[in-house]
Amino acid sequence: MSDGRVINFGAGPSALPTDVLEEANKGLLNFQGTGIGIAEISHRSKEFTAFLNEAESHIRTLLEVPSTHKILFTQGGGSGQFSAVVLNLLARHRLLHPQLKDEERVMDYVVTGSWSKKAMQEAGRLGGGRVNIAADARRYSNDGKAFNSVPPHDDYAFSADPALIYYCENETVDGVQFSDDLSSPASFPFEKLTQGALLPLVADYSSSFLSRPIPRLADHAVVFAGAQKNLGPAGLTILIVRQDCIVDVDAAAKLGATPVPITLSYKTLADHSSLYNTPSVLPIYIAGLVLRKMSDGGGLQVYAQSNRQKFEKIVAALKNGEEKDVFKAKVKDGSVSWMNIVFDVPGEGRQQKFLDGADKRGMKGLAGHRSVGGVRVSLYNAITQQDTDKLVGYMNEFVADTV
Ligand SMILES: Cc1ncc(COP(=O)(O)O)c(C=O)c1O
To answer: Would the pLDDT of 1 be above 60?
Structure first.
């Protein structure tokens, strides 16, 4: 391990594999023997475009992305996509149904946490369609305000022929995630969607991308993710877009749709193989090295299995603390995220004591999001079993010392 590095359990930007960072160090000075550093080289050089193509093919193989979908690289983060999916999919809907009034273009949002809520608010702000809350997880919490579970399948009310259907697979702040087991009541209710149609289904995978396979990937119109959790530095956003959702936004604007800024248009990105303008070369480089490591290391199932183990270890330590009234889980069983596990340490000053003790032992980034407080353990791909075991040891020790 490089000198002075601690274990970073932060929620994002977050830990990256040390060997990748060491390799990237070399590339910063001399990218693939070109004599030019990666932050200095032309994005149109044959070396960089080959690297970009390799990164894309790793994603296609790791996630088994079907040929019906394009993989695109862009910037603007998850928040940029809150806007871009609305504009592109409203343009698609306009081309399909030019006669409808704006209020007849419905955008279905499944609200399970603060990120899907933000995305929904952006859709309302942009206009051009009407927002419908297809399900709201807050209804199932005690105070009606907290997000602490995935709603039951019966609760979803999807619209007929909406412009988009939106969900956030893993809510990073609230620690709520849809189950990847489609027989679980906490899975996404794919069976309630119109079957056999090309649905405008959108998923924000920002904080779970490449942590495990994506259920029913082929049925999605758009899957997007900022890179800064499992994959690389902030500044790179990855899109997987079904080809029927890459539409001529200018033709839609002529029919009355909101004009789409050129860099947000999926068609611009696709027509220029993600190189319409200068991409985020350095984040792509580091993400590309991580992807290469994943492919060389046995593929996604290896990571999925390891992530499950890490999750189970922390949940067991949390349960031990709950039994002794030292910890209190915030999320209901079945909806707990593999990537971000959130809990409280009730009692005067105890939470700070827990965080300080972790800090002293070289474990940082464990404070919950400022909007909800508590503790948040983020277990992204770069967190090892050893890192997890160290935290588990500390959690158990803290419980034993407290009771
Ligand atoms: C699930 C999810 N969606 C969206 C975002 C927003 O991403 P960005 O900060 O890249 O705009 C985040 C950020 O943490 C996130 O966790």
So the answer is: no
